[in-house]
Amino acid sequence: MTRRKLIAGNWKMHCLKKDGVALASKIAELYAGTDSKAEVLVCPPFTILYSIANAVSDSGVLIGAQDCHYLDMGAHTGDVSPLMLKDLACSYVILGHSERRQNHKETDDLIQKKAEQALKNGLKVILCVGETEIERQEGRQDAVIKSQLMGSIPKTAKAENFVIAYEPIWAIGTGKTAQPSDAQAMHAVIRKEISKILGAKEAGAMRILYGGSVKPNNAKELLSLPDVDGALVGGAALKAEDFFAIIQAV
Ligand code: PGA
Questions:
Q1: Would you tell me which of 56, 142, 197, 217 could form a disulfide with 61, CB atoms 3.0–4.6 Å apart?
Q2: What is the pLDDT along the chain (250 residues), one digit of tens a residue?
Q3: What's the CA gap between 94 and 224, in Å, rounded?
Q4: Per-residue b/e over 130-163, b at no fewer than 16 CB within 10 Å?
Q5: In degrees, to the nearest 5, what angle opens at C-alpha 160 toward C-alphas 36 and 42?
Q6: What angle do CA 186, 206, 102 make, to 5 degrees?
Q7: Measured distance CA(55)–CA(31) in Å, rounded
Q8: Is the pTM of the predicted complex or chain greater than 0.90?
Q9: Residue 69 CA, ligand 1 centroid: distance in Å
Q10: What residue owns the CA closest to ligand 1's atom 9?
């Protein structure tokens, strides 16, 4: 089973318009100049999605958002809907990032509703799962991840429109990464669980990204693991050269 690797940049709450456009233009320029086989995605904040969409147009670099509501329109002050993201030329939306689970009390149930609506609108979903440091110390990481997957993958998910991102919370923004053997073991657990939820065919074809302090110096090792099909990159996605080096590590 060959799965096309996906390198996705999660810009989080970074970049004003000028810096964001410069960053995206540089990434687009570098990517357009290679024969890279990786699929490349940048996920800027909502406020500059339109500008970034223009900056990367025709380069092959895709854009995505970092969250969405579970409805298309309505009285929901401050929210952004999947229909609106589609209208802005987004291809993807990241859902269930641990920063949203923790800071906005997002539950598996809510994330599942968001995912379902995103898929209905033709957006592809990157569903994030991950355990805390304590959960890993107590040996509960597999159970935690399985329950997140079971609770948040909608029945309509398919390998072509759905991606899982395994991001151990203790590795996000900390400079610590999972040991390659631990990352591979967890990705295999995830693939097995997807098989239970969606069947073996979808599980075999679905991409599972690793995230958490992916940098140019560790990307190659992580990306060469059999069940690692790409990376969700935070900090290193904010420097065009670093992000491009990770793309080149594919
Ligand atoms: P990081 O963030 O690469 O800065 O650790 C990854 C993420 O949160 O998606």
A1: 56
A2: 689 999 999 999 999 999 999 999 999 999 999 999 999 999 999 999 999 999 999 899 999 999 999 999 999 999 999 999 999 999 999 999 999 999 999 999 999 999 999 999 999 999 999 999 999 999 999 999 999 999 999 999 999 999 999 999 999 999 999 999 999 999 999 999 999 999 999 999 999 999 999 999 999 999 999 999 999 999 999 999 999 999 999 9
A3: 23
A4: bbbeebbeeeebbebbbebbeebbbeebebebbb
A5: 50
A6: 55
A7: 13
A8: yes
A9: 22
A10: 234
> Which mutation among 14, 99, 233, 238 tests ligand 1's pocket best, with the greatest number of atoms within 8 A of CB?
233
Q: Are the C-beta atoms of residues 168 and 178 closer than 8 Å to each other?
A: yes
Per DSSP, what are the bridge partners of residue 6? 39, 230
**Cβ(117)–Cβ(154) below 8 Å:** no
- Cα(104) to ligand 1 centroid in Å equals 18
Cα of 75 vs centre of ligand 1, distance in Å, is 32
User: Is 69 assigned a catalytic role?
Assistant: no
Ligand 1 pocket (Cβ < 6 Å) reads 10, 167, 172-173, 211-214, 232-236
Read off the DSSP letter of residue 47: G
Task: Report residue 207: phi and psi, to 5°.
Answer: -85, 135
